[in-house]
Amino acid sequence: MVGTPRVLSTSFPASGNPASGGSGSPTRLVQDRIAGDAFDVTGRGIYYLSPSQDLKSATLRLLSLEGGEPRTLGTISGTVATGLSVAPDYTSILYSQCDQCAANIMLVENFK
Predict the structure, then answer these.
(1) Are the C-beta atoms of residues 33 and 7 closer than 8 Å to each other?
(2) How many Cα atoms occupy the beta-carbon half-sphere of 57 within 13 Å?
């Protein structure tokens, strides 16, 4: 995980498609942790990766535009870096993963 998880905080009509104004129902608020910028807004809703507490895995979730609670679609092992993209046909996703999240800095004196 690169950086601190962000919080997805969104509100929209409790029923109906928010893009069309819904049905005049009160808005609902959904909050969840999101890994970096690992989300994609599609015609079906907001797909996002929510990191585990130990940051060693992430859960792929879908917040439907039709309402309801976020739905878990699967779990990804490993540390999610940033970014998420859902294919236009919704059959695959693309995300970045940090296999070795570390850096080595060395001081080399008298290098020639």
Answers:
(1) yes
(2) 6
Q: pTM of the entire structure? A: 0.67
Q: Write the single-letter amino acid at 5.
A: P
Specify whether the CB–CB gap between 40 and 82 falls below 8 A: no
Give me the long-range contacts of 67-72 (CB less than 8 A, separation at least 24).
Answer: 67/13, 67/14, 67/15, 67/16, 67/28, 69/30, 70/30, 70/32
Amino acid code (one letter) for 99: D
Percent of the chain clearing pLDDT 90 (strictly above): 20
User: Which tokens belong to 21?
Assistant: 């104004």
